[in-house]
Structure formats: C-alpha cells, structure tokens
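Incident review: delayed structure delivery

Summary: a single-chain prediction request sat in the queue longer than the usual turnaround. Root cause was a stuck worker, restarted by the on-call engineer. No data loss occurred. The affected request and its eventual output are reproduced below so the record is complete for anyone auditing the incident later.

Affected input:
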Amino acid sequence: MRGWPLRIYVILMLAFLYAPILLLPIFAFNDAAIIAFPLAGFSTRWFEQLWSTPALHQALRNSLVIATVTALLATTLGVCAARAGAMASFPGKRAMLGFVMLPLVLPEIIVAVALLIVVRQVLDLDLSNWTVIAAHTVICMPFSIAILNGAFQNLDPSYEEAAMDLGEGRWGAFRLVTLPLVMPGIVSSLLICFIISLDDFVLAQFLTGQNPTLPVYIYGLTRFVDALPVIMALGTILVTLSITLLIIAEWFRRRGLARAGIKDSGGFL
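Output delivered after worker restart:
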C-alpha cells in the first residue's frame, strides 16, 4: 500500500499532460467542423484538406529546411563542445561549458527578443529562414551537448591514442575510431535537434520572414473557427512524427550505451 499514493500521483500527472493530446486524433477524425462532443461520425476529410493547401505546404517546406540545417549545425557544434569537455583540460573549461549550456535555463521569449534586436537593430539584417536557423541552433546546441557528453565521457581515450601510435594523425584517429563509436549519440542528437526546431514557435514567431514556419502557420489558423479541425489533423500528424523520432533517438542512445558496455540509468523514455 505504500506505493499507491505515488502511483496515483503519476497516473493523474500523465492524464493531465497527455489527455489533451489524445483528443487530437479524436476530433481530427470527427466529421463535424465544431470541436465538441458528441461526435458527428468518422471522417478523413480534414486530412484530405491538408493536401490541397499550398500555404501549408510552403510552411512545411520552410520548417523541414530549417529543422534539417539546424540539426546539422547544432550537432556539429555539439560534437566539438562535447569532445573538448571530455578530452581536454584548459583554464575556464567549466565556466565556458556552463555558458554554452545557458540557453537551457533562459526564457525562450527573452532569447527571441534579444536575437531580434541583434538581427534588426545591430546587424541591420532582414528576417529570413537563416535568422530562424541561427536562433534554433543557439537553443538546440545545449541539448546536443547534453546528449553527446555521455557518449564522449564514456569513451576510452586509449583507443584514439592507439590509432595515433599506429601512424594515424589526430584527425584520422578521430574520424576512423572516435566518430564511429559516438555515432549513435550523434544520430540521437540530430533527431532531438530536428524535433525541437520543427516544433518551436516562439523564436520562429519573432524571427521568421515573409515565409512562416509550420508552427507559426498553425497559430495563424487559430483565428478561424472553421480551421480548427484541420489544426487537429495536422497536430495528429506532428505528434505522431515527434513521438516516432523520439523513440528512434532513444533507441540510438541506448544502443550507444550498450556498445560502450554502460548500464542505462535513464533517458528520454
């Protein structure tokens, strides 16, 4: 009986968090345009409507391009930072790594306003997909470092040293020995950064140009009551995609730990 209060608490918390998400597919397949019970009947017309909306397709392309480039940039920078944190010792290392991880605790709207001022007032640049990519890279890089820190810290440095003793240069040893060993962490980082960038609204709302991202486009649809079922259908697809990518990222993370012979102490899932 001692564990029942905790179990009840966990059940209530999960219901509070995920019950609204479960409503997405229910109303997405509802035939009525009004979001209310009782349901009118089963229909896929809201999903079919997604295929005939050019503005939605453009927003989706923008988000996919931004998320892909952001994932590549954030993971590349994350690899460099995580390797430096695990393999090197230099004055101020802890302070520098802490500064790099600072965006994790900063309010996202504050970061968005600050970057908007820098882009428009200081640098006098036009808002575009590249400004969103730069902002998303700043936000995603700490997540990438957090994922890759474990991969590099659990890596035996003697492997790379042995490769250099056999005639490889430092870059060759890293490319042929270290990189394959941390590749599951890199793939996991790419997927997590892609999800974060794809789902972000606050930074995109402030820094997007003439072509909105998918979350900004969805927010614009909320002004129209008739568009709510379409939002439900689109939300169902996005939630399914995000959960699928998250599961794949967790699988790669655990695979990397298993290859290193390390017991898993918890992760995304």
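Verification: Residues 74 and 137 are 5 Å apart (CA to CA).
Action items: add queue-age alerting; document worker restart procedure.
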